[in-house]
């Protein structure tokens, strides 16, 4: 068990370690629904009460992870676009889908943030999350608008749909053990076989083309 952090640098590192542990557990266990504070502190090598020095509760920890996810998505989009120009709507959709699909835990957290995490923290923490998530979404929109033939309004619509689809499709394509067993018994209900990235890409391509046709 690690000693209690005393310097600001050590405290910052402990907070980062807890986030890294939570993300690793979500990947190992098949979703953030299975992540507990006890498991996170164990993975990070801290006492089980230690997490409360950095995050008030499990919800605040996971909301911090979701907030980081928005920044990671922004950076991934910037890297994917690079110095490209004149991208068509389908190319924009592929960039959006591929970057989202590369952030599995973030896609998982999108649904949890909307359903519970934002409402289970204090108002100032919720405000910070909304501020930073909105800022990241705006940057993503501007980057894609500059690199493509789509308008800001069209890309805003695409991003809104992308977030909603990613949140829902991730949950469907990563069922709980009970549902996975049920789908094995009932292949016709085989949501477990749903391919997340191909389905997300197809639907976002259709959305992008439709938005351009409708708002042109």
Description:
This is HTH tetR-type domain-containing protein. This protein is mainly alpha-helical. Helices cover 72% and strands 0% of the residues. Helix 3 (58-81) crosses helix 4, helix 5 (104-115) crosses helix 7 and helix 7 runs antiparallel to helix 9 (196-215). The chain is globular, with a radius of gyration of 19 Å. The mean pLDDT is 92.
Quick rundown:
With 216 residues, the protein is mostly helical. The protein is 72% helix and 0% strand.
Largest sheet: none
- Our Rg estimate from Cα atoms comes to 19 Å
Low-confidence stretches: none
Global structural class: mainly alpha
Provide the residue-averaged pLDDT: 92
Strand tally: 0
Q: What is the oligomeric state here?
A: single chain
How far apart the termini lie comes to 61 Å
What is the strand content? under 5%
Anisotropy-based shape: globular
Number of helices: 9
SSE blueprint:
Blueprint: H1 8-29, H2 37-44, H3 58-81, H4 89-101, H5 104-115, H6 123-147, H7 152-173, H8 177-185, H9 196-215
Key traits:
216 residues; globular; mainly alpha
């Amino acid at each position: 068990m690690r000693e209690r952090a005393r310097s600001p640098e050590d405290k910052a590192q402990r907070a980062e370690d807890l986030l890294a542990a939570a993300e690793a557990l979500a990947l190992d266990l098949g979703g953030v629904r299975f992540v507990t504070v006890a498991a996170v502190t164990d993975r990070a090598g801290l006492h089980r009460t230690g997490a409360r020095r950095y995050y008030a509760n499990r919800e605040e920890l996971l909301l911090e992870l979701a907030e980081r996810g928005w920044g990671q998505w922004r950076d991934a989009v910037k890297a994917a676009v690079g110095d490209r120009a004149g991208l068509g709507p389908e190319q924009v959709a592929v960039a959006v889908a591929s970057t989202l699909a590369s952030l599995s835990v973030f896609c998982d957290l999108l649904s949890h943030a909307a359903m519970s995490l934002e409402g289970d923290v204090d108002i100032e923490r919720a405000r910070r999350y909304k501020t930073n998530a909105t800022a990241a979404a705006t940057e993503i929109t501007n980057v894609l608008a500059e690199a493509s033939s789509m308008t800001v309004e069209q890309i805003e619509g695409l991003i809104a749909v992308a977030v909603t689809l990613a949140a829902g499709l991730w949950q469907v394509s990563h069922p709980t053990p009970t549902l996975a067993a049920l789908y094995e018994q009932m292949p016709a209900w085989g949501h477990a076989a749903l391919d997340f990235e191909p389905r997300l890409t197809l639907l976002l391509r259709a959305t992008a083309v439709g938005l351009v046709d409708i708002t042109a």
